[in-house]
Amino acid sequence: MARGTAQRVFRMTLLVAASTAACVIPLPSWLDPARPAFLSITLLWLVFAGPKPAGLLAAWLTGLLLDLLQGGMLGQNALAMVVTVAIALKFRLQVRAFPPLNQAVVVAGLLFIYEFLIFWTDGMAGLPGRGGWRWLYPLTSALLWPLLAALHQRALGRH
User: Fold this and answer.
1) What CATH number does the domain containing 112 carry?
2) For the chain, what is the domain count?
């Protein structure tokens, strides 16, 4: 593996690890419903603008890791992450051409699909829902998309 490729893989791994940590760090109870989906945003950025698009295996593994760290139903986030990344991969080239604000609208739609899948699997398993606040995090994530995409761009660069 070339030195530049190894460095890029290392930086992407650090970026995913930091995003995962940001998803599980405790927040005050009043702020928790608005927590952005840092890991989902990172994977979507890797699909849309990253040096090499993230694949379904990466989505499944990171979703499974998030399931383990959050203590939820095993496979729930993995399923939602795979479906979301599969849709993003389908429209990758079109979304890549959009300006960041338009990309934020697409990201909001994808995160609403993600949250609907979590909502659906909670219902199928008979788990109590999080109420109407669950729909707030796709909006906060979409609002932060331009900033986080710029930070990811700075951390990894476009190759």
Assistant:
1) 1.10.1760
2) 1
In this structure, how many other beta carbons lie within 10 angstroms of the beta carbon of residue 62? 25
pLDDT digits (tens, 9 = 90+) for 68-127: 998 889 999 999 999 999 999 999 999 999 999 999 999 999 999 999 999 999 999 988
pLDDT, one tens digit per residue, over 3-56 is: 767 887 888 888 899 999 999 999 898 888 888 999 999 999 999 986 677 789
Structural domain boundaries enclosing 48: 3-156
Tokens describing residue 75: 């496979």
Q: What's the burial of 116, exposed, middle or buried (CB within 10 Å: 0-12/13-18/19+)?
A: middle
Please name the amino acid found at residue 73.
Answer: M
Taking 50 as the threshold, does the pLDDT of residue 159 lie above it? no
- What secondary structure, in 3-state letters, does the chain show? CCHHHHHHHHHHHHHHHHHHHHHHCCCCCCCHHHCCCHHHHHHHHHHHCCCCCCCHHHHHHHHHHHHHHHCCCCCHHHHHHHHHHHHHHHCHHHHHCCCHHHHHHHHHHHHHHHHHHHHHHHHHHCCCCCHHHHHHHHHHHHHHHHHHHHHHHHHHCCC
